[in-house]
Design a protein that fits this description.
globular, single chain, 502 residues, mainly alpha
């Protein structure tokens, strides 16, 4: 798992760089303006649907496919795939038409602070974007299918295509008007999945439409609770944006940029590890392999801690500097950078909790205990609603980031309690000695990076100074892991030596 996860992280970094380039384009052309808020709210709806459908449909599809393949063979499992994509593609296309009709009340709920003119523009853009829903649903199943077949790299490359189209739409088509720009974004959502086609089995491209398939029904029954459970991050962000629209002008944009930077860490590390671990965990469940399930879970959790801890502390230590490096320029001012950085500082606190909860929830999904993550998600969202209203009054936008982090930490703790109740055993989730090594290495890394940044920024400038400080800090961290003989690094060294000897 470790090597595959690390390769996937490298590919995901590339995809996330294009995602940041998209946010940089938005910041450059729109800054924290009303137009930025309009575009981000309109874009967030198809982005939300993409994230939710990819997570829920993929999470529901993988264990059912594995069970079917285990019992009835590969051909029957591929027939199930073909039927599933056809049914879901049709359903979500029809659903998109309903969503287009009700776009106005939807946007009023998401952005109560919009003026009438802002609302009209947002409604027009949203209705165009929503036409992508059917293709997004089909793409989510194809992505999960590729992961089952071990084609992890190709399954995460499609966002690069999407972001290139969005950047071109914002930079070029926006000059021609709202409609051309919106059509460009629609094409971005639709055409990104073409990259999957050469790698898919031809047997899944069949015209079959059976609503009576037992396995399809089993998958569909699991989708709604999985959707609720996996959507907690997106739901929290929706709540925060609604509150931010009433806190200050440009607040939605600031939250968006901070969230994207937080998502850079979670997408690279957490999603990469979960993407590899979950199919293995689901396959172990289908084969009644308890030892294999526990191995995949603990291996993923251990690797995650090695990478998440320094990423979290690093984002907190350089929150405003990172925002300045990536976004300041054009319409995005120094004041905007400081506002966004204050939100990022608190958002970063949630990264370890998100990773821990993502791994824990996959155990519940694999075992069929879907209700528990659903209840946990509801608690997280309700907690975030209450804390956001309270914290925003005293801390402003930064309070929204703090509320999100507290709610996610609470969710992780409650899932641990639930897992121990259903398994009737106390688990040792982390090696204390290993954690102490990671925290010590992280502390030294930050001290070194801060010292380098303060020294070099005066000589070569803030941006270049920060890049060098981050790079050297990262090198120091991984050298310390070698010195401290951290398990993941030792295993990686052994694997590389074996390959060299071959």
């Amino acid at each position: 798992m470790k090597e595959t996860s690390l390769i996937l992280m490298v590919v995901t970094v590339l995809a996330k760089i294009f995602g940041l380039a998209r946010e940089k384009a938005l910041a450059h052309f729109f800054g924290l303006s009303p137009m930025a808020d309009i575009f981000i709210v309109a874009l967030s709806i198809p982005m939300l649907l993409t994230n939710l459908l990819t997570g829920a449909l993929g999470t529901g599809f993988i264990p059912v496919y594995n069970e079917l393949e285990e019992k009835k063979g590969h051909a029957r499992a591929d027939l199930f795939t073909a039927n599933t994509t056809n049914v879901l593609g049709l359903f979500f296309f029809l659903l998109s038409l309903v969503a287009i009709i009700f776009a106005r009340p939807l946007l009023k709920a998401l952005s109560p602070g919009f003026t009438p003119s802002q609302m009209e523009t947002a409604i027009l853009m949203t209705r165009i974007f929503l036409l992508s829903m059917g293709v997004t649903a089909v793409g989510a199943i194809y992505r999960a299918y590729l992961q089952i077949r071990g084609r992890f790299v190709i399954s995460v490359l499609h966002p690069i295509i999407m972001n290139i189209f969005i950047i071109l739409s914002v930079g070029v088509l926006s000059k021609k008007g709202i409609v051309p720009m919106s059509i460009g974004v629609l094409l971005a959502f639709v055409l990104q999945y073409l990259i999957f086609l050469p790698y898919l089995d031809k047997n899944i491209f069949r015209f079959v439409l059976s609503f009576k398939d037992t396995y399809l029904k089993k998958m569909l029954v699991s989708i709604l609770p999985i959707l609720i459970s996996t959507s907690v991050i997106e739901l929290n962000f929706i709540i925060n944006k609604a509150v931010a629209s009433m806190v200050t002008s440009g607040g939605i944009s600031a939250l968006n940029y901070a969230s994207r930077l937080q998502g850079f860490a979670t997408g690279i590390v957490i999603s990469s590890i979960v993407t590899v671990a979950y199919p293995q965990m689901a396959r172990a469940i289908a084969a009644n392999d308890r030892e294999g399930l526990n191995h995949s879970f603990y291996e993923g959790l251990s690797l995650m801690s090695v990478l998440v801890i320094p990423a979290t502390v690093g984002m907190m230590a350089f929150s405003s500097e990172i925002v300045f490096l990536l976004f300041q320029g054009g319409a995005f001012t120094e004041k905007d950078a400081l506002m966004t950085g204050s939100v990022l500082f608190y958002y970063a606190l949630s990264v370890p909790a998100i990773g821990f909860r993502e791994m824990l929830s996959r155990i519940f999904f694999a075992k069929g205990y879907i209700k528990i993550p659903v209840v946990n998600s509801i608690i997280i969202v309700l907690t975030n609603v209450v804390l956001s209203m309270i914290a925003s009054k005293s801390l402003g936008l930064a309070g929204l980031g703090l509320a999100t982090s507290i709610s996610m930490i609470l969710g992780g703790v409650l899932l641990v309690i639930s897992l121990e109740k259903i398994s009737h055993e106390r688990r040792k989730y982390f090696n204390i000695s290993q954690l102490m090594k990671l925290f010590l290495a992280t502390a030294i890394m930050i001290l070194v990076a801060k010292g380098i940044y303060l020294s070099l920024s005066k000589i070569i400038g803030l941006r270049l100074g920060l890049l060098i400080a981050i790079a050297l800090g990262g090198i120091v961290y991984f050298l310390l892991l070698v010195v401290f003989r951290v398990k993941e690094v030792e295993e990686l060294k052994e694997s590389l030596l074996k390959k060299r000897n071959k």
